[in-house]
Amino acid sequence: MSVYNKVGALATRAVGEFPSSNDLRLQNLVESQLEITKTKNCLNALSAKFALYRPSPLPLT
């Protein structure tokens, strides 16, 4: 390992850029919740859009 790589690795560890497993779990949870929220918002928007569009019922013959 070169001196540059050693210094970079030490600096990286010093500023906490190597997340712990708990940090990764929390990050994954937050990202999952964000995706769920985006999906719910999209579904709500689609529901609202189609609630406004109500085709007239077909006449009974």
Series of secondary-structure elements, N-terminal to C-terminal: HH
Number of helices: 2
Rg over alpha carbons? 25 Å
Oligomeric grouping of the chains: single chain
| Class by SSE composition | mainly alpha
Low-confidence region ranges: none
Overall spatial form:
rod-shaped
End-to-end Cα distance, whole Å, is: 84 Å
Average pLDDT across residues?
76
Biggest sheet layout: none
Helix content: over 70%
Outline of the structure:
The chain is built from 2 helices and no strands. The protein has 61 residues and is mainly α.
Could you characterize the architecture of this molecule?
With 61 residues, this protein is mostly helical. It has a domain at 20-47. Helices cover 72% and strands 0% of the residues. It has helices at residues 3-14, 21-52.
Supply the key terms.
61 residues, mainly alpha, rod-shaped
Note the topology.
Layout lengths: L2 H12 L6 H32 L9
